[in-house]
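Support request, priority: normal
Reporter: lab tech (M.K.)
Component: structure prediction queue

Hi team, I submitted a job for Ribosomal RNA-processing protein 8 from Gymnopus androsaceus JB14 yesterday, and the status page still shows it as pending. I've pasted the exact input below so you can check whether something in the sequence is tripping the parser. The sequence length should be 395 residues. Please let me know if I need to resubmit or if it's stuck on your end.
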Amino acid sequence: MPLFDVPGWSVSDDPIPDAGSRKRKRPPSDTGSSESRIHSAEVNLEKLVKKLTGKRDDRASKSSKSNNSSSDSKSNSRQKKKQSQPAADVDKKKNISLPMPLMTTTERAAKKAKRSHEIRSQASKDSLPSHSDQATEDSAESSSGLTSMQKNMKHKLDGARFRLLNQTLYESNSDDAHRMMQEDSTVYTEYHNGFRQQVRSWPTNPVDHYVQMLSTYPAKTIVADLGCGDAAIARALIPKGINILSFDLVSNNPYVAEADICGTLPLPGSEGTEGSTSDGEAHVVDVVVFSLSLMSTNWPQSIREAWRVLKPSGELKIAEVTSRFLNLEDFVSLVSSIGFKLKSKDERNTHFTLLEFKKVSRKFKSQKEWDGILSKANTLKPCEYKRRCMELYIY
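Reply from support: The job had stalled in the queue. We restarted it manually and it finished. Here are the results:
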């Protein structure tokens, strides 16, 4: 039966012509040449096996030799190290994993005392920065030996003590304040120690402003610093040739002369004669400075003294806490009635107001007229503090 004999289909019996194959055919070769190629391949294979086996053996021998030499060197180094190592170190290594023995009561007490000594030594190093005046040195010495917590508590107590003293000075007459500091010399020291702590929190210090300003004045200019405190202005400007006369209730260093600035200053000057207008006589002062020192209830008397000692057209400079002014114009009017004219005012600072006046001629005033002027001290209100600050000191 013919292939693909399907009803309805017919296949021609002629052979299909060979279109040619694209596959490359190997040329025919004889049997002898094929056997020679096989033999040659076997020989090459044996050579390759021998070559590879020989290399592996060489590598193995070299590796074993190097390992042996390395192990020998390590063993020798360990042996030498062990021989050179002291017996005490060997015993220490043996006991290094053992627990530490418990300390006796005496040893624990000695360790605690040593730790306390270290804390006191560190606290001594961290004590308050030293200043040139003796009052600050005493304060730094009193803070030595305290821990950080104790020093912080001491600073708070000093601050509370300062606020209590400050309010007392604002609300008392200058005579009473002077007597209080004469009876107890530590009051002045405690007040100024607290004042230094408060100054550190201020954005600016009026004293620095006056030091910078007065340093531009001619040499031998005479400045009276009334209520000078530590005499910072004198310390800064005397070396520059400016003559600074510093006055305060207590003299605790050579720069300060003791005086009640609301009384009679130990300086020449006069208020003129009755029935005439004048600048007074015998004055020697070019500039008077009040830097936060209009404190007592009779502070207007210190302005009167400033007029007495100032030369004609002399300068009066006042720096005061802004919150103390009930009405700045009333304050300026009071100072003007004593014999001054306002030259400038600076209210740019958030804490302080700076005022500058010039001395002018005035008519002689009777005691009754002066009583009326000096009774207006309430144009400046005293600095008052919250009660909790004083309770902190009390308790």
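Residues 31-84 form the longest helix (54 residues). The radius of gyration is 51 Å. Let us know if anything else looks off. Ticket resolved.
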